[in-house]
Amino acid sequence: MRSLARQPHESEWVYSTTLSRRLLTPLSEYVHDLPSPSCPAIELCIAACGYAFNPVIFPCWPILVYVTSLSCGGMKRSSSWSNAWRGGHRAATNDAALYATNVTIAYLASALVTLAFTEIGKASFATTRPPTRSKDKSRRYGGLVASLKSKHSFPSGDCSQAMNLCMMLWMYVPPPALNDDADGDGGMDGGMLQFWRNVVLFGMLLPGVAFARVYYRCHWIEDCLGGMLLSCVIHRTIIPVIATRIKTGSAYWFEF
């Protein structure tokens, strides 16, 4: 019965590489079959990661981006807390709310672009999701985490959105100029906050989302890796084009 369940998955070319057959697929099945933690609080944390980018919860992330942009902008003196780019020169702006609004608009645009390419990928590859388990092997919160998921598996939309959020905050909030030493204060406060925030984003949130999506049998590991890679490619190609069209005041604030 197990071999029959694996056959459709292994016949799809996305999962037919040597790496998938010898490592990733067995590892995915191992995570799929992990027993539920004896401590409900641990599984609640896993479920929170797996549900974090569900359409029901997603509106919380633009709010977080806005608040983070607003607070990061206020770290330095009002005359230099935020810097915009125009012709390669920094132009100061004191409008924190406008800056945070534009960052949030850019994030929403990036999320929509990521969603569009994720759905294109799902429709193009049309891969099957992991087989469902019997009721006695079901997970706590499994129905909640798996709710509103699309038909196809590759790439993972949740992982692509998680990577998009991480990339957005890492690259643009606070802007690189926040850590410059132009005002002589060493720029340490903003730099340390940015460092620890990145540890939380890339070291906890992103792996947590990927693990949870596999743990709850919504995806294979390849789906999660594909979603992350897709988001990285989008951030190196399309997002900069979108970002340079969004202004703070009269100056561009996004630019590589």
From TrEMBL:
Residues 105-245 form the Phosphatidic acid phosphatase type 2/haloperoxidase domain. CDD domains: PAP2_like (cd01610). It holds the Pfam family PAP2. The chain crosses the membrane at residues 96-117, 195-216. Keywords: Membrane, Transmembrane, Transmembrane helix. This is Phosphatidic acid phosphatase type 2/haloperoxidase domain-containing protein. It comes from the Eukaryota. It comes from Stephanodiscus triporus. The lineage of its organism: Eukaryota, Sar, Stramenopiles, Ochrophyta, Bacillariophyta.
